[in-house]
User: What shape does this take?
Amino acid sequence: MKGIQFLVDEHGNAKSVLIDLEEWGELWEDIYDGMIIETRRGEPTIPWEVLKAEMEAEIERQRSTDG
Assistant: This one.
């Protein structure tokens, strides 16, 4: 496949891949995003409403100290 090279061990087993980012950069971004998602699987989450309220409270605290 053009723009893809596999690095192999002494037995010919693929160990790594070299991707031409000029050719496959957009695809790599998708692959990388998937890898990040996988590493974060199982992390604790908070509901959007809670995060939004915390962010709004922080903005209000900054406004009250700035002015």
Q: What stands out?
A: Residues 21-40 form the longest helix (20 residues). The chain has a mean pLDDT of 95.
